Amino acid sequence: xxxxxxxxxxxxxxxxxxxxxxxxxxxxxxxxxSTSRPGTPVAGVHQDLIGEIDLLFSGExxxxxxxxxxxxxxxxxxKFLAENTFSANTxxxxxxxxxxxxxxHDFVYGLPEFKKDAIKKANFIANPGCFATAISxxxxxxxxxxxxxxxxxxxxxTGATGxxxxxxxxxxxxxRDNNFSAYKTFEHQHLNEIGQSLQWLQPExxxxxxxxxxxxxxxxxxxxxxxxxxxGSLEEAKAIYEEQxxxxxxxxxxxxxxxxxxxxxxxxxxxxxxxxxxxxxxxSVIDNLLKGASxxxxxxxxxxxxxPESSGLHLKxxxx
Length: 320
What we know:
By secondary structure, this protein is α/β, with parallel strands linked by helices.
């Protein structure tokens, strides 16, 4: 059995990891570390787990676990790893932004549909951001095929859980309910990793991604639409995407209209392609906490340990 630890156990992504790993056939959850709640029941915070686990939050770290997931606020993973040393055999999956950009570190960007071989060999994974996952899966096949001709225009909506568990003025129920707003227009932090991936795949073209992120009045999920100029036919575009994702465990190209209820509470990404004149439109939907965070983190862990990619991730959407 793979022994796993979670650092930063009280947040949404940690809660999803606890749920997945508790029932993963090849994993034993060794500890859930929290500086704010040591000695208290994990199910006291993640209350859907009452009656399912007896684990307490730990104030100590087992540095000999096989894999550790970092569910810390952005900027804190670097600090944590500077202050805590794990065994040479411990694999690390970081869910923050700290190691996503290429630089002087050993972390592999963990987008399985495009980095599977590198992930299998990696000891350290930088898990992609939620918006970055939904958008990258929508636009990268065209870049890999060297078919992007110009700017991308992207509009995406995320649920309230995308802002994390800490309260702010824009996460209160009275603000979110019956409301909708844009934020961080053209400068969202996930643009950097999306741009980096595009440059990996089509470096000869300087591609601008015009991204408008929005807050929706629902709890979880991301609905993204992306369009760009494309000289080919819709059939040619579909062939590119179907070839890219033919062996993908969780990413599917469909002819059906897509919406969030098809993917919420799953590790799926659904994509639909449409052609309007000289423009190709791709719609992408994911669950921001699963395919956009914890589910993808476990998908990466499975690849790192040579397990089936979907092990422990046979999650079903709640349609009603």
